[in-house]
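Q: Joint fold for the lines below.
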Amino acid sequence: MDQHQLIDTIRSKASFLCVGLDPDPARIPAHLGTGPQAALRFNLGIIEATSDLAVAYKPNVAFYEAMGAEGWGVLQATMDAIPSGCLRIADAKRGDIGNTATRYAEAAFRQWKADAVTVAPYMGRDSVEPFLAFEDKWTILLAATSNPGAEDFEFHGAEGGQPLWRRVMEVSRGYEGAERLMYVVGATRPELLAECRAAAPDRFLLVPGVGAQGGSLEEVCAAGWAPKLAGGLLVNVGRSVLYASEGSDFAEAARLEAKTIQASMAAVLDLNR
Amino acid sequence: MDQHQLIDTIRSKASFLCVGLDPDPARIPAHLGTGPQAALRFNLGIIEATSDLAVAYKPNVAFYEAMGAEGWGVLQATMDAIPSGCLRIADAKRGDIGNTATRYAEAAFRQWKADAVTVAPYMGRDSVEPFLAFEDKWTILLAATSNPGAEDFEFHGAEGGQPLWRRVMEVSRGYEGAERLMYVVGATRPELLAECRAAAPDRFLLVPGVGAQGGSLEEVCAAGWAPKLAGGLLVNVGRSVLYASEGSDFAEAARLEAKTIQASMAAVLDLNR
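A: Joint structure:
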């Protein structure tokens, strides 16, 4: 899915909702059973109930790795179940160099059939460009996150110049294939999101942290809106959709919650038409 | 394996060799066949031929992920084949926060049964401490690597204070469980390795880049030696051991190469007794 197709999808669905698929074994409704296959049934129920409301799904790879060998199959079956009109984001935060990075990219783009993968920037150019070399795919680079630990390194360097997150956004613009970059920016600090938008006016931002983690959709849109990109935002919501109900009505409850969020997104898109 | 046991192992084997298990499908000897099971046969041959000469093995997880679902089984069978007297390092460079990080740690330590895992520091404390919470395990944090892209971010911030890699080493010393940290430091810049040793005099350093990548064992030891830790170095060698021969004598050739390296290590240990 290229940028034009993504913008068209956002406009036609009146949504920029990304649903995070992080199936927590402790919170999967009891009637689905237990173990990796229960997680798969849960994911399939969530996807079926929300696929007209979401433009992207984001399985968090850690949840599948922790299931053991069977988790790999659950991840692949989950990716397969995501309709082709939605962006499939492997949230893997990989980061290694050269031919190792190429192998991580092959796992994400060829094995899991993801359209996009999240990548950590620490090792620099030769850890990012092997992902960007896949011409029909997206690389979503960690920039400014909103976890407490972000202060440790992401904000380092500001005394003498710019914080690390800003250098990541600036330097990565020069990478080969940079037109296939997006950035991860946390939702809970709107002023930071505005700075990120200024640093990358022409790129999509993947914004986790809305909902259960405390970010506000209205503040995110006010701070991060890029008019030429139909907003240029993919707002990820995880727990508040997944666990809207932990009973046998989990899918209907997830749909209701997703519908509420999508309606808010439609209103923002309408205002900014 | 705790620090005392690791030091004892280094002394008794007269070696601080870590063998990188990065099976490249294009370089596996033809008589082993093709596909994931050929990679496993290759790994088993390498391990059997070198396990008295090495103190650690480091499977690079990307190589197994790129094989698809079967790769997971190959990684587990490889880990299982590493004798318990050797440190099993999952080179995964994971980096995510909170309960996601815990799941990556569970995958590495519980599913793959690794003794140690490499971790990327970008997201800070809450992306590292979930690994450190595993009391009988090691977390090996990326610090100063020697790939060209390291200039992009690892060396950022030096004008106004310290480079990022040094901040990573300083700040992480304050993390809960920091006594279970090691650091990844590249071999090809001895002066940088000396700075890293000064920043972490009491920690083991995992040093890739010796051999095919151009680092010299003698320079690494001169720059990075920590006398109280029997050197405090795990020197990783990959391709020059794995592909010493690409014929049916690959295991014998790997042993000869590993033996040459181990003999050099024994001499350094003897000199520094």
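Q: Anything notable?
A: The domain at 3-271 of chain A is CATH 3.20.20.70 (TIM Barrel). DSSP finds twelve helices and eight strands in chain A.
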